[in-house]
Design brief:
- The chain has helices at 67-84, 90-99; strands at residues 9-13, 38-42, 50-53, 61-64, 102-109, 114-121.
- The chain is an alpha/beta fold.
- A hairpin with a 4-residue loop joins strand 5 and strand 6.
- It is globular, with a radius of gyration of 15 Å.
- The two termini are 28 Å apart.
């Protein structure tokens, strides 16, 4: 889905004290391959997890990891901004996330891409 224009792209970072290390399972490529930013969010991995809803009951939780844990962080952030300002566009929310609602994270990608800066969501 990340190659589709107008799609919010999300990858995962570890859920540790800094939250700036790309998860080992994260499949991420040079941003120049895509339109729009690739946002990072806690997804666990590499010995860290996210407490998430669990399928055993309507109230159960469990420890999980994956980009499927990172994506709801970003979706929730967009939903919260939209709820606070119903008239704001997705493009405006994305601009806000990139400028204010995130922190820069440098990721070392395989050659020839090298070091690239991505944005990790963080509510101010």
């Amino acid at each position: 889905p990340s190659c589709v224009p107008q799609v919010i792209k999300v990858s995962s970072v570890r859920n540790d004290s800094t939250g700036i290390t790309l998860s080992g399972f994260a499949n991420i490529a040079s941003q120049s391959n895509y339109t729009g930013p690739i946002l990072l969010a806690p997804g666990g991995g590499d010995g860290t997890n996210i407490r998430s809803a669990f399928p055993t009951s309507t109230t159960a939780t469990g420890l999980m990891s994956g980009t499927s844990q990172a994506a709801p962080h970003v979706a929730g952030m967009y939903a919260a901004v939209k709820a606070a300002s119903p008239g704001v566009s997705v493009a405006d929310i994305t601009a806000w996330v990139v400028s204010t609602g995130s922190i820069p994270v440098t990721v070392n990608l395989p050659a020839p891409a090298g070091n690239q800066v991505f944005r990790r969501v963080k509510v101010p």
